[in-house]
């Protein structure tokens, strides 16, 4: 989908605890560092829909499993991507893509390395039933 | 301790899963974005000692509990700090501070928002018994 990049990331085995890469300055999809924050999502709960008009998201899931649904309102395309520490990839979401996400395990954690700081006025929200998707 | 900053961070309650702030561009302790990576540490295992000559670390613990021991070899001071999602703070570690850390829970995860990309030659390592500390 235009505006979406999936980048496989390294998980480095270590006997005392693995290392998980997330993002380097200059990586594909990096558009500057504005803010980093975590979001948790309970099992079976869905957060969304939301789209950003300025922020580029870079999303990594080091704990649990999260299903992301992306919706391009120009092409009317949906894209479903499930990320976890097993399917360990970075999901870059450019501006004007609608996104919702659902927790799949008991504990689910995502890190967003956002290109700008949180600004409520640059994000748009819709209720989950305002974009029809066969969850 | 000189070279170390502790910054309380917001945890925003949400019925579908809480949000945890980590760092904004321009926050106290932010010295540029080089790389973000996760490290896990098994219960009772210790990683360290390590010090960086160029990298500034910004450490956040969204899962589990991790005990950090910092050692300033000039002043011979030790500092012990335990971080978790309950004691949710950002630990900034400037250059030339020795650090080791121990996992306290079953699952422990730290995020390092590092000021430069990983460069093996800028870090120094010592075996855990080479700096005496009453673990």
Q: Any idea what the CATH superfamily of chain A is called?
A: Jelly Rolls
Number of helices of chain A: 0
The helix-and-strand class of chain A reads mainly beta
Share of residues in helices of chain A:
under 10%
Mean pLDDT of chain A: 97
Briefly, what CATH class of chain A? Mainly Beta
CATH architecture label of chain A: Sandwich
Oligomer: homodimer
Query: What name does CATH use for the topology of chain A?
Result: Jelly Rolls
Count of separate structural domains of chain A: 1
Most extensive contact: A-B, 33 and 33 residues
Biggest pleated-sheet summary of chain A: 5 strands, antiparallel
β-sheet strand percentage of chain A: over 45%
- Give me the count of strands of chain A: 12
Task: Chart the SSEs and their pairings.
The structure is a homodimer of 135-residue chains.
Chain A: E1 4-8, E2 11-12, E3 19-24, E4 35-40, E5 46-52, E6 57-63, E7 65-72, E8 77-84, E9 89-93, E10 98-103, E11 109-114, E12 123-125
Summarize the structure.
With 135 residues, chain A is mainly beta. Chain A has strands at residues 4-8, 11-12, 19-24, 35-40, 46-52, 57-63, 65-72, 77-84, 89-93, 98-103, 109-114, 123-125.
Would you mind describing this structure in some detail?
The structure is a homodimer of 135-residue chains. Chain A is mainly beta and 135 residues long. Chain A is built from no helices and twelve strands. Chain A has a single domain (4-127), classed as Jelly Rolls. The first copy, chain A, has a five-stranded antiparallel β-sheet, with no helix packed on it. Chain A has a five-stranded antiparallel β-sheet with strand order 8-7-10-5-12, with no helix packed on it. In chain A, strands 2-3 form a two-stranded antiparallel ribbon. The mean pLDDT of chain A is 97. The interface between A and B is medium-sized, with 33 and 33 residues.
């Amino acid at each position: 989908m235009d505006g979406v990049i999936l980048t496989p990331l390294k998980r480095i085995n270590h006997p005392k605890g693995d290392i998980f890469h997330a993002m380097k300055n200059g990586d594909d999809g990096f558009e500057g560092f504005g803010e980093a924050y975590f979001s948790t999502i309970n099992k079976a709960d869905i957060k969304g829909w939301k789209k950003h008009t300025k922020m580029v998201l870079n999303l990594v899931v080091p704990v649990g499993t999260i299903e992301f649904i992306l919706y391009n309102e120009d092409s009317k395309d949906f894209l479903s991507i499930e990320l976890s520490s097993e399917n360990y990839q970075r999901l870059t979401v450019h501006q004007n893509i609608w996104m919702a996400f659902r927790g799949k395990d008991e504990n689910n954690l995502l890190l967003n390395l956002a290109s700008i700081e949180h600004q409520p006025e640059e994000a748009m929200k819709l209720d989950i039933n305002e974009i029809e998707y066969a969850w």
